[in-house]
Amino acid sequence: MQKKPSDISEELEKLAPGLSSLLEDSARSVPEGYFPRLEATIQQRVRNGKVRSIRTYLYWAAAAILLVTVGTVFILNSRELTAPSFEKQLAALNEAELLTIIENEIDDLSAEELVLNGLVDDYSPLDDTQLLEAAYDAEDDIEAETTESDFFDNSLLDSLSETELLELLEDPFGI
Amino acid sequence: MEWTDDEILEAFKKPLQKEQAFNLLVSRYSKRIYWHVRRMVQEHEDANDLTQDIFIKIWNNLSEFRGDAGLYSWIYRITANETLSFLRKQQRIPVRQQEVQADPVMTAEQAMSATRDSHAILVHLEAAIAQLPDKQRQVFIMRYYDELKYEEIEQILGTSIGALKASYHHAVKKIATYLRKI
Predict the structure, then answer these.
(1) Tens-place pLDDT, residues B36-57
(2) Chain A residues touching residue B140 (CB < 8 angstroms)
(3) Could you tell me which of A121, B63, B129, B141 has the fewest CB atoms within 10 Å of its CB?
């Protein structure tokens, strides 16, 4: 048996005289050829462990992919559940609310969109001839309105007496 | 030419030399690790399993070793922690201690006579060491059997030298008292 370093032997001798002789006699044993076998076993386990660790990485990668897939499906489903579709939102509105929305939004719609959404019956761009006809029609409407208003004014004048007419001419604003 | 610990560490970082470096490490430290563990857990089979597990842990973590302490201290710290963890899991009283305590009528003279037989010495001594609290036993084994300096034990266990000396003192006294009783 190897001799103990002096500081250790002296320290023990001071603490418990005689104990060192007992401790030095104690020798445990190991099976014959144990340490070379131990080294070989450790090296073998490390080699096997490397294979295991690659497998472990694969398991983790597969688990991660599965988790991401399940998570994405879950998130999409929950969004669908919590956020109703546009059609569902429209269906929930009453008639008055729908009309309010249409009135507010109709100016933003093009003619084609109006037709597509069934808000007007038909739409087709006008050619030059149609435009001219539309302009004449508009002029006639204005004339008709003017005539009507003139007629109304003349009838008023007709109902006045000569004296009243003179007064009106002298002071048209009744001041 | 024998590699230093630093050279082993450098080689371990290179993929082509990693295994060779580790094998050198195993050759250099496996006996010391085994004996430390064996003295702590007593049974050869347990010590064998635990020593293997410790080296697997070293293999898995050596690339993260920063070199703040010496490689030996780092390995020893893993060994100490793994051994204490094993003992905590086992939470067992070593069988040999029970065997010795089963003969309370043996006088001191008879005990000393019995200890003339080397096997009997071993049995009594193992029982005496086994009755120590885990940490105290660890300090005693590191100091007496592994022949570490207090400074080295301080680095491994992170305990002050004063506290280590106190632990060792208590351990020796308890072993002596135990052996005197048998």
Answers:
(1) 999 899 889 999 999 999 999 9
(2) none
(3) A121
